[in-house]
Every structure is written in structure tokens, then in C-alpha cells.
Input
Amino acid sequence: MSVGLSYALASMGTEPPAWRTWMDVGGASLLLLFPIAMALLVPPVAGADPRRWRTRQAWLVAATVVASTGWLGWWAVEGRPPSMHWLWPAYGVTLTLGIQVANRKRVESSTEGGSRPEAGFGPPVRTASLAPRRAEAIGPPGWAWATLAAIAFVATAAAASRLLLGTESSGEQLRAWIGPGMGLLALGEVALFHVVCRRFLPGEPRPMDPGASPELSEQYERLTRSRATACYWLAAGMSLLLGAGGVVVAWAPAEGSGLVGWIGAGLGVAIGLAGGLLGTLSSVRSMRIQDRRIELSRTPA
Amino acid sequence: MGVITIHPARSTPLAEQIVAALRRTIATGGVAVGQELPPVRQLAADLSVNLNTVARAYNVLQNQGLLQTARGRGTRITSERELAPGPATVPLDERMLDVVADAKLAGLDEARVRALIEATVRACYPGPDGASGAGPNAGRKESGS
Output
């Protein structure tokens, strides 16, 4: 968002060099560290081998550090930040790694209904209910979110590429491209968080490990709850931030704006606001559902 | 609804443990005929085992005539009575002898062994008032004996 904003401001002729520099650094850091935050904030895994889990986290951190170092190294040598053509692939790699880590953790041992507490809790037995679970739909179906995320990323990447290619950039064109792009990106971030985070919600009420003490079970639930809550608030914050970015860029005044510019500005404001609001509302609603599930899971069968 | 338990620390393969646990659950009425079992993916995730392990266990039970998997409709309990086992199966009387011999060699006295057997029979053949007696499968002669 900040990278886009900085380029937008620069192209509008209001470029403050120091501001742009910090925006570049901040934007790149945000984009590169976002996957790590997502991977680390997912709730703890029931029964996963903690050594393997930490090894994967270490690999993810190392990959992001390498990507960030390369980006900063380029900037130091060349005297200017590398093109976003490099940033986007780096973002994609770290994001993919983050999702991979999160999914592997999920496959190893789900928190959605398995009764084995986290490694080290209780005796080495594993129990499972024979009741089939039906996934509880929260909001639109997964394919809708995935489509939205894809549109958001493509739209934003297209806007960024258009800027970087330098094709007759003007304030009007910028608003037409970046405003909606940022708004869509806000929706995309919401979608991404939603798809990833809701997989880690505690499942339906389940029998706890017969060997686990109530204190340990409660500790496990509390840890799960705190990380899931942090994950959702991060989602809400990111979507609000991006939505606000879309609004700011779209609302930036420019002399002689034509119809295209105003349409873009209007779209940017509308979609940006929708993204921010949707992100916040869906996060709050998901947390309420999560609270209810945890409450139910503590109720003896 | 029944719950199954496996013990990863034991030397018995996990798939065999799942088969045995499901057979126990069926025999003790933890799941009824016609009832749907969880999908392979769900059970594998809950038990923290590989998908293939659960799939293998389901396949064994399907070959025994206890389960049936229909594409798109899940896996259901089809019978409380298994198909006749092959000649390679150890006869029931030999298995019973193994169990009682294990108990004796473990140092249990006769009364304790009888009590264990009584409790097991009561679990599988609950009478109307919960006492041992003629249950729904009381007249059943287990194959392989």
C-alpha cells in the first residue's frame, strides 16, 4: 500500500524524497513480513512435533530475511529501491511459504476436532469422535473469497506495473487505477485471512484427552484462543489500513480531473470503505463464533 | 456417538489399532448400523495419522463386511456381523486361549480373569436392564471359531 501511495504521490508531483523513501521501506517490509506474521499467529497445533514445527518456522523466517536482505542490498548498491517487479515475486514466495507452513501444520494435526492436546500434554493416546463434522460456513464460500483475492492481487499488480512502466502516468490515471486497486487489495487481504484463519478455529465440541488435566486443557484452549484472536485483529487492521489507503489515494485532489479520474476515485472510495468495513465485521463475527465454540467445547458432553 | 482411541507408543501398527478400535465400537454399540462414519480426512486429522492409514483401516473393515463406502455419500456401518474370515484367520477359541493365557502369565488370578471376561461380555451383550444376558447378538455364532 505504501509503495503504491509513494509512487502515486510522486507521480502527482508532490514527492517528498524522505517520505517516499520511508514509504518504500515500510511497504516492502510490510509485504515481506506479512506472510511470517500470518504463519506465526495461527493457533497452536495439537499434537504436532514441536521440533519439526519450529524447523519450518525457522525456514520461513530465513527465507524472508534473505528476501528482505536482497531487497535492501539492492537498494544500498544501486542507490534506489528495486523495481516492484522484484518485490511482487518476493512477496509471492514468502506468502506461499507462509501458507505452506500453515497448511502443513494443519495436516499434521488438526485443531478442528482432534482430542489430543498439544505435545507434552497428557499421555500418548489419541482419541477421535466418530461423529462426522459438517463444516460451518462463515460468510461467502471459499471459492468466492479466492476469486476476490485473485482479482485484488491482479488489479493491484496491474496498477503497479502500469506505474512502473511509465505509460503516461498522470494523477487522473493514477486515481483510476490505484484507488480501486487498493480497495480490492483490502478485500483480498480480508479474503486471504478469512480462508487461512478460519481453518484454525477450534472445532466443534470434542472429548478432551482423558489423560489431560482440566488445567492443561484450559491452557491449550486459552493459547489457541489468544493466537486466533490476534490473527483476526491483524486481519481487521490490515483491511482497514488498505481500505483507508484506497480512500486516501482516490480522494487526493488533482487539477482538471476528468470523468475517468472521478469514476476511479469513486470506485476507490467505495471499494476501500467496503474492504475495511467488511474486514472488521467479519473478524468480529468470526471471533464471536470462535468464542461460542470454545464455550461449547468446555461443556461436558 | 462413539469415540475411538489409539496408542501410538504401542508396537501394533496404527491401521490395525484403528481397525480394532472400530470393531470394538461396533460390537459395543458405540455406532449403529446405518450410521455414517467420519471421512478419512477428518479421522486422520483427529488421530494425527496419515490419510492412508485410515483409508487402509476402512478398507479392511469394508472387506470384512462391516463398512461400505459410497462415493459422495460417505462411509457407513452396514452390519454388526462380519463376513466369514479366510482360512488364515486364527480361530476364536485359540484367540480366547491366548487372552486367558496372557492374563495368567501376567499374574492375574482366576477370579480376576473371570471378572474381566464377564465385564467384556456385558459390554458387548448388554441386556435390557444392563445385566448380562440375551442381547441382540446373543445367539450369534462368531465366524472363525
Confidence is low (pLDDT under 50) at residues 131-145 of chain B. The interface with chain A takes residues 1-9, 22, 25, 30-31, 36-39, 42-43, 45-49, 74 of chain B (CB under 8 Å). The first strand of chain B starts at residue 3 and ends at 6.
